[in-house]
Amino acid sequence: MEELNSTSKPIKPNYKALAPLIVFLVSYLAVSIIAGDFYKMPITVAFLLASSVGAAMIKGGNLQHKIEVFCQGAANGNVLFMVLIFIMAGAFAQTTKDMGSVDATVNLTLSLLPPALLAPGLFLAACFVSVSVGTSVGTIVALVPVAAGIAAKTGLNPALMTAVIVSGAMFGDNLSFISDTTIAATRTQGCKMSDKFKTNFLIVMPFAVITAVLYYFSANASGLPYDPQKVEWFKVLPYVAVLGAAVSGVNVILVLAGGTILAGLTGILTSSFGIWGWTEAMGKGIVGMGELIIVTLLAGGMLETIRINGGMAWIIEKLTKNIKTKSGAELSIAALVSFANLCTANNTIALLMSGPIAKDIAANFKIPASRTASILDIFSCFVQGLIPYGAQLLMAAALASLTPIEIMKYLYYPILLGLGTLVAIWLGYPQKIRSIFKK
Fold it and tell me: N or C: which end of the chain has fewer CB within 10 A?
């Protein structure tokens, strides 16, 4: 099978095109693990090395042509949209922090939840928010600063508390009716959202419950001494407004812009800072997103070189070649979208790329469209929630002043989601369970 590039010329499958991805994983993950310090190898340097390898592998044309291909990937509309979100999120996050909104929200949370329920409580809150807003990144922007603040005040592991929010965010990204991934999965398979939701819910709900239990025991917060200060309700308003606007379906850019303005005005009215203090906070927040923006641009360019060099075409060819059983077909669909997500770092794009192929496979093996859509959505969120160069982990790490690798080992929900769904495919759950009860 051959993929088409932007000029409609066939792209021949080539396994060597995956070399940049391997270079990144070795230079960032392997080196950091061997060194025992995840700050030894900056993620920007790892991506620069991988991007250079990808660009150098582009056949035909001179150096200028190779650079232009790389830049086309970096300037992809989805990539630049994420950059804009990061800019707005930086301004919002720093403004709310400087005017005391984060501290006020932390105090409110600590006054409402007993110590033992902080981690599972925040996980459930993140699940609710992400299902409501339909965006994992929006959930992370809103709740990670709160989770980091709680960790600082209670002594809880900041990486664990950040992972709690990311896990809850991926729950909603997978299930929400207004999530891009849900829309892409159902549209490519031609099924109703309600049918996909029912199938999806039966598969993932047990893992969400197990995750909440695991966070309860992992946090070990039953004996944590903390004395919540008086809640400044007025300063909580920006967070409440942002969550309310997001739940109402307002565009994420407008949500962050409105939240920044509201936080700034609140800060001025409460004498937390003046007009120049507000502008300084916004500038500081935007500059603080610099590394994240650089990584996003480098990743976009690198992944485009993988695509145009035939990496995606090779994966599709290998995964769809020797399918013989229904469970094998479902596993190939899971692997297809997983690899697509690994190579694009965007679960919506991965779904759009693999969806049509998955639909053909499902038709040949009589797999219900709702189940195919569920498998596609689940595994795209599984990979997206774990890759250290995805927007979710990069954003969470930046807001919590951590590295993505520090957070990854506590991402119980994405891990359970992927492994558990593999078991569900093997067992034929929930179809076989339903048939047993019918008998």
Answer: C
Single out the residue of 125, 208, 210 nearest to residue 161, CA to CA: 125
Nearest to 29 by CA among 291, 379, 410, 389: 389
pTM: 0.72
Q: ω into residue 430 within 30 of 0, thus cis?
A: yes
Question: What does the alpha-carbon distance between residue 169 and residue 182 come to, in Å, rounded to a whole number?
Answer: 14
Q: Helix (H, G, I), strand (E, B), or coil: what is residue 10?
A: strand
How far is it, in rounded angstroms, from Cα 333 to Cα 335?
A: 5
Tokens 């900041």 found at: 158
At residue 5, the pLDDT reads 53
What letter represents residue 8's amino acid? S
Give the length of the chain: 439
Name the one residue in this structure whose structure tokens are 């310090």.
37
**Contact residues for 188 (Cβ-Cβ < 8 A; gap 6+):** 351, 352, 355, 356, 358, 359, 373, 376
Mind listing the pLDDT tens digit for each residue in 111-166?
Answer: 777 778 889 988 988 887 787 666 788 789 888 988 898 888 888 899 999 999 99
* Contact (CB, 8 A) for 226 and 92: no
**CA-CA distance, 144 to 270, in Å (whole number)?**
24
Cα atoms in the Cβ-side hemisphere of radius 13 Å centred on 350: 31
